[in-house]
Amino acid sequence: MTLEIVSSTNQKEQNAESRVLQQNAGIKENVKKGWTSLDTNAKMEMVKLKNYENISKTSTPLKFQQPFVWYMKWASSIVLIFAMLLTTNNMYPYNMFFQCIGVAGWLVVSIIWNDRALIVVNAVAIAIFLNGIFQYFVKG
Predict the structure, then answer these.
(1) Do residues 17 and 73 share a domain?
(2) Looking at the structure, do residues 14 and 41 belong to the same domain, yes or no?
(3) pTM (2 d.p.)
């Protein structure tokens, strides 16, 4: 009896997987044909297909899924690169201000993504930079 239940459950899972693969194959064919006017559901299905095909790929959202987050992470990255240039050219304290802004942007992104490791790293970095900024103004 238990064996029959398990085999029927496996059969249902296989049927569901084959239906998803058939749908995704149709989407892939449309893309190959050059159809660019895919609706949002089709785009989401393509993302699901990509995640299904290669589990080891990163699962960060794409530009069309979360455009605010996409722009925020790139703007924060550019600000951090600029802050690194300021640091290498010994432009104290401006480098701390830009680093704090860049890390704050990444903190917002990590909170939206709910990525605890990034939240911890960026929160600690903000605390360190704010401490340095505070020390700069206190010591004059």
Answers:
(1) no
(2) yes
(3) 0.56
pLDDT in tens, 42-94: 666 666 665 555 554 556 677 777 788 999 999 999 999 999 999 999 999 99
Q: Domain count for the chain, please give it.
A: 2
Q: What is the four-CA torsion angle of 76, 80, 85, 91, rounded to 10 degrees?
A: 100
In a domain, 130, yes or no: yes
Provide φ and ψ at 20, rounded to 5°.
Answer: -65, -40
Crossing angle of helices 40-53 and 2-32, rounded to 10°:
120
Cis peptide before 93 (omega within 30 of 0): yes
Are 10 and 48 in a shared domain? Answer: yes
CA dihedral 24, 22, 12, 55 (to 10 degrees): -40
Contact 60, 47 (CB under 8 A): no
Are 76 and 24 members of one domain?
no
| DSSP H helical ranges for the chain | 2-32, 40-53, 67-88, 94-113, 116-139
